[in-house]
Write a structure and sequence with these properties.
The protein is α/β, with parallel strands linked by helices. The chain is built from 13 helices and 13 strands.
């Protein structure tokens, strides 16, 4: 099978794309895969290191703050569109797959114009602008969260889950002992790999208040905020870390997670079945993190604590309430697990094969 995959900008797009690639390679080792990303975003560093054939195009998203900048954006789009047509004609793919990010717009539009088989995958509950625009052009739309169906032509939509979740299931568990904790319940607090400036200020006040609590806490600050904790009292039941390489393995020992609600995080939570207190970032387009979190909350898998309400008093109240009620915690765990799709990457692969007319 010859496949062009395009995704870029954030790990929330890139890692699901890589999960699809890995599944294709697992099932069809002789497949020829080409990844089209940007020249200046994180995929340009991640993808080539994995020995995946990579082409970077010069492209940027619409600028809502400086409308005149969009003249340059349009010129870049037209150039990327024409380059995509040339690449597709030369590569002759069986299918072109878009997994999110503005780079997919010229690539998938070019593929559609050339009458290639086309598939897009949406990770969030509320679709991004690019996928909404592409939805009328592509053959098939795969979604991670069931609520997304309301935003797309229903006859094209297939619920597959996030392909990243299938890989998450295979990750080895990191035990509490390996983390330096005893067997008490473990709360993990993490606001993305980089951390959050606004949340960090509150966390500095919260940490000392975990003293004498009958549970352990792992706070992952992000590298830029780690030094802020050198001058505060760290209780013996709290470990502060700048970064953890195997967060997925740690989550498999986690009794309660306090985190953001981006698409990748939701895939991790539901694949493993982790009860969660979700703090949606209010700084993302279309407030999609809140909508992601709401889907979990409505299903009984998590609760929402908005950033404006995130402080020591409110967080400790919610943590204590959940950890002191094993019944609620177990129900949340089961509800979270029900939302996960254990064979998500396989489902995506099967839909791609159907799209190109192969069973």
């Amino acid at each position: 099978m010859k496949v062009i995959i395009s995704a870029g900008g954030t790990g929330g797009h890139i890692y699901p794309a890589l999960a699809i690639i890995n599944k294709i390679k697992d099932l069809e080792p002789n497949s020829d895969i080409l990844y089209i990303g940007t020249k200046d975003r994180m995929e340009k560093d991640i993808v080539p290191k994995l020995n995946i054939n990579y082409i970077g195009l010069d492209m940027e998203g619409l600028n809502r703050k400086i409308p005149l900048r969009n003249i340059i954006v349009l010129k870049k789009y037209l150039k990327a569109y024409n380059e995509s047509k040339k690449i597709i004609k030369e590569f002759k793919p069986d299918v072109v797959v878009g997994v999110g990010g503005y780079i997919t717009s010229p690539v998938l539009n070019a593929a559609s114009k050339l009458k290639c088989k086309t598939v897009i995958h949406e990770q969030n509950s509320i679709p991004g602008v690019t996928n909404k625009m592409l939805s009328t052009k592509v053959d098939k739309i795969l979604i991670s969260m069931k609520n997304s169906i309301d935003y797309f032509p229903k006859e094209k939509v297939v619920y597959t889950g996030n392909p990243r979740s299938e890989e998450i299931i295979r990750v080895k568990k990191v035990t509490k002992k390996e983390l330096g904790f005893d067997n008490k319940k473990l709360v993990v607090i993490v606001m993305g790999s980089l951390g959050s400036a606004s949340i960090n200020n509150e966390e500095l006040e919260i940490v000392p208040n975990f003293k004498n609590k009958d549970y352990n806490v792992l706070l992952i600050t992000g590298k830029r905020y780690y030094d802020d904790y050198k001058d505060i009292e760290i209780p013996s039941n709290v470990k502060v870390s700048p970064f953890e390489n195997n967060l997925i393995g740690i989550l498999k020992s986690t009794d309660l997670l306090v985190t953001r609600s981006g698409a990748s995080t939701i895939a991790e939570i539901t694949a493993i079945g982790v009860p969660s207190i979700l703090v949606p970032s209010p700084y993302v387009t279309n407030n999609h993190q809140y909508k992601n979190a709401k889907e979990l909350e409505n299903s009984g898998a998590g609760i929402i604590l908005e950033e404006k309400d995130f402080n020591s008093k409110n967080l400790l109240k919610e943590i204590d309430k959940l950890l002191n009620n094993d019944k609620i915690l177990e129900e949340m765990k089961l509800s979270s697990k029900k939302l996960g799709v254990e064979d998500s990457a396989t489902r995506v692969y099967n839909e791609i094969k159907k799209d190109i007319g192969e069973k």
